UniProtKB/TrEMBL annotation:
Residues that bind Zn(2+): C56, C59, C77, C79
Listed name of the protein: protein acetyllysine N-acetyltransferase
Enzyme class: transferase
Active site feature: H48
GO MF entries: histone deacetylase activity, NAD-dependent; metal ion binding; NAD+ binding
This protein's record includes keyword Transferase: yes
EC number, as in UniProt: 2.3.1.286
Keywords from the UniProt entry: Metal-binding, NAD, Transferase, Zinc
Stretches assigned to the Deacetylase sirtuin-type domain: 1-168
Lineage: Bacteria, Bacillati, Bacillota, Clostridia, Eubacteriales
Zinc in keyword set: yes
Length: 168
């Protein structure tokens, strides 16, 4: 169930703060809630899309998530076309440009912080292989298959951990 009233949490806000301070290049997420953008992050690769972007399959007109919730049944555009959310449904391919952007950010970065994932869901888990930098940091409640490859492993809630970072 989608909750449009969800607000960015401490992790979303801290990542946006780090980007504003020039210490963070990009955020890559599998979530479709759009909360990183809502928190103020500018460079966000939403691998599975966002429920806040919807478009008509016929004419391409954009619709907000509110527009979709207002409609009954399958939402239709004023032109008669079906409105589809810009999210990747099971069995669909990820968007090429988003994947390319995300992989290029990972390849170029010196420090990669991965938080809140057990790293068992592909394809995102496979993205780690593109990292050539110096510091791999994993923040997750439980252990992951990559814990032994990381330079720093923190088993805790990602929001609590990121919240402790002081940005100068
Ligand atoms: Zn249309």
């Amino acid at each position: 169930m989608l909750c449009l009233d969800a607000k960015p949490n401490k992790a979303h806000l801290k990542l946006a703060e780090l980007e504003r301070a020039g210490k963070l290049t990009a955020v890559i997420t599998q979530n479709i809630d759009g909360l990183h953008t809502a928190a103020g992050s500018k460079t966000v690769y939403e691998l599975h899309g966002s429920v806040h972007r919807n478009y008509c399959l016929k004419c391409g007109k954009s619709y907000s998530a509110e527009d979709i919730l207002k409609s009954e049944g399958v939402p239709h555009c004023e032109c008669g076309g079906i409105i589809k959310p810009d999210v990747v449904l099971y069995g669909e391919n990820l968007d090429d440009r988003t994947v390319t952007g995300a992989l290029s950010a990972i390849e170029r970065c010196d420090t990669l912080i991965i938080g809140g994932t057990s790293l068992t869901v592909y394809p995102a888990a496979g993205f780690i292989r593109y990292f050539n930098g110096n510091n791999l940091v994993l923040i997750n409640m439980s252990s992951t298959p990559y814990d032994n490859k990381a330079d720093l492993v923190i088993h805790d809630k990602v929001g609590e951990v990121l919240d402790k970072i002081k940005v100068n």
